[in-house]
């Protein structure tokens, strides 16, 4: 296995939560095809925005109301003219990203552990 091992305390620092996509917009300013997503993580986190390169497998209209899994405690990242506030998680196969989603509807903001 090539991956570096991390400690349990390292893993505990990563705040991974479930949120619901409230809005999905085109992001023509991005270097690679992407959407701007606004995701509701419930109280106390609220709505965070992100850029996601998921256009190969998902139409933006199909994302509205979908629950996704994302890291919510990274620092903001400037992407073109947009500040990404979280990182949506997915399985990556070259330029295709399959989103990680709970199999059943859960409360927004639930922590993944």
In whole angstroms, how far apart are the ends? 22 Å
CATH superfamily: Nucleic acid-binding proteins
Helical stretch tally: 2
Q: Describe the biggest sheet?
A: 5 strands, antiparallel
* Integer average pLDDT: 95
DSSP summary, beta strand count: 9
> In percent, how helical is the residue content?
under 10%
Overall, the morphology is: globular
**What order do the strands of the largest sheet run in, or round the barrel if closed?**
3-2-1-4-7
What CATH architecture would you give?
Beta Barrel
How much strand content do the residues show? Answer: 35-45%
What is the CATH top level name? Mainly Beta
H-E string:
HEEEHEEEEEE
How is this structure best described in words?
By secondary structure, this protein is mainly β. It has one domain: Beta Barrel (OB fold (Dihydrolipoamide Acetyltransferase, E2P)), CATH 2.40.50. Helix content is 9%, strand content 39%. The strands form 3 sheets. The chain has a 5-stranded antiparallel β-sheet with strand order 3-2-1-4-7. The chain is globular.
Could you list some keywords that capture this structure?
mainly beta, 9% helix, 113 residues, OB fold (Dihydrolipoamide Acetyltransferase, E2P), globular, 39% strand, two-stranded antiparallel ribbon, single chain
